[in-house]
Amino acid sequence: MCVKYSLLLLFRKLFLSSSIYLLAYAGTTAADDRTAATAASLDEEIQTLKNEVLALNRSLFMLEEELLFPASTQVAVFVSMDVGNYFPLESVQLKIDDKVVSNYLYTRREVEALHRGGVQRFYMGNLKSGEHELIAIFTGTGPNGRDYRRGADFIVNKRPGARFVELKIVDNESSKQPDFSIKVWE
Amino acid sequence: MRQGYCKYMLLCLLLSCSQQIQSREASHASVKDLQYGEMLFYYYQQDYFNSIVRLEIAREQGRLPNHKDEAELMLGGLVLSYGMRNTARDIFQNLLDDDQHDLSVHNRAWLYLAKISYQRGDLPGASNAIVKINGEMTPATRTATANLHSLLLIEKGRNAAAIDILKNTRSGKHWAPYLKYNLGIAQIRNGELQAGLDTLESVSKTGGDTPAQRLLRDKANLALGYSHLEQGETTASSQALEQVRIAGPLSNKALLGAGWANAEAGAYAQALIPWTELASRNVTDPAVQEALIAVPYAMAKMELYGQAIQHYQESITALNDEKRQLDISINAIQNGELLKQLQQSDPGTGFGWIQQLDLDSPVLHYQTELMASHGFQEAVKNYRDLLFLRNNLDNWAHSVTTYDAMLTARQSRYQSQLPAAQQALDSNAFATLQQRKAALADTIASIESSENSMWQKKQQLSEIETLLQQTGKAIGKLQQADTVTPAGFSAFNQEISHRKTDIKQLQTRASRITQAQEILLEQLAVDELVAQQARIEHYIIQARLALAQIYDSSLNNPAKRIIQ
Question: Which helix (H) or strand (E) holds B254?
């Protein structure tokens, strides 16, 4: 009976997950209180450190942008997806005025983020005022599992002030094919 | 005592379920500002660090005109996910202090504040915040509010009030089974046993094949099984526990309970089936350790004393082996093996979470048990975040030096172009143009006869006016550049120098805090494993005691079949 009683208690304790054991075996000693206090104080310090490192990153990214891409010549190209069911994206290549300026190979995680509405900053550079030709080449696996490669080209008129260009992969429901559209943000 | 354990167990199940509701609450808003979408790109990869940086930069550059309120709430949620509860609390409090925001923003801010208090264990603070939420709500806010509010009420023992909330909350189709599950647990804790069992029964029959839906069904069946067992309804208990997936994460607990349901009914032979299966599994799990002595216990009950003795002895050996394994793991931790493992997994992503580790390492032999401890889990998360921060600071320390070179290049380019610009400024091109304009205007005034000649002169005048405008603008720019740019260079220089100092100071602090966190992490891990050793020791004592009782009983009653 003694064994059974013990087992009954034990099995119920076990079912409660290990948290009850922490209480039973380790939860009440002075040493544990000290450990908990250390953990709490370190957590506060880590929170403050995170805050300061975030602020530093913010300052440095902004400084970098001002130094490398002054607003007068800055152009930023973004990639996004609207649904994107017809195009499992693998990579994008961008050419500006016939010169390759960026190649990017996507991870599964990144493609999922794009599917869910995320927008990727794909390229940052400088362009003189005037018209420039941008060519984007998208590769992936298209309908019926075939390799898919599509290019889209367009002219951007660079005016003073930063210019943001969005390359958008859009599902075309009628053709069951992906479309590639471009939007220049003011 | 049994009742107390049962209630505690039900609360544990409830808490584990609520976690899912909270983790799925984040909403997906349509992107109206590019930079908001950029933040989402990182957020959806659980890269909280970079999503915070991107959001703050976009906010500072005024690039979120269409997501103003949403961005503040999002920022609060992001910093909370990144473990910065203090900053999150300040952000939500600021939103609440601003009367400009509408009710929905205030409601969500209160909900976040309630969660922060709840995470800190400040239940009164959480209760105060949650009751402030009112009026029309989105389904996500309504569900999360009902969930947290009911949890708080259950913890206070106000189960009836929790039931009332859960019954009267309209949640979307997706969330309904989760709230229903909580309702079943609350009903059982409130003594409404049949109602609770019926509710859980309906959850266990919910459809859907996603991992989360399957897990919810397993949890419902497990809770049903143990609730029936608590009431002595062993057949119903067995039926529910058998529904739990044999390869699922709750399988060990279900097998242990199924054995006990049969044992309570006196069907020891039946009890041996799940217990024997369980005893063959990974012995690091406490349920398996339990099964190791439950098997011979059932055999002894069946008066198979010889087999019982043999199994008790084998179990004692297995448990002693496990104790030695724990010793090896503790030694490995003390020799830095745990930290080595944690450092090996990539800290470059900022995910702040332990994901893929080498489970063959002796320290990670007990990973599941260690990670079940909230304190250890939090310490690992902080440690991984610290590794990421240090990595980030080291990268900046390296790249900031290139800024000097860039600035020098820009400065020399400026200097080289300065003489030509100065010459343009000094020349009297502007004055000459002005003189020509005045002369032409005079000529036009004096010409009256020839229309053709008049048109040509007016054309010339218009061209000169355009030239004058352009030249005036260019001169203005040059004059501005002459005075502003050198000042800009010096501001850049100063900024770079300040940031270099910041990086150095932060590197020193991050290094000190990391060392302290390493000591804490090792201490927590060792404490947990020592506690496991104590539990195993307890099982060994129980097994030895049972053995002694069998021997003792056989001495007093030789008719008992010791040898089978």
Answer: helix B251-264
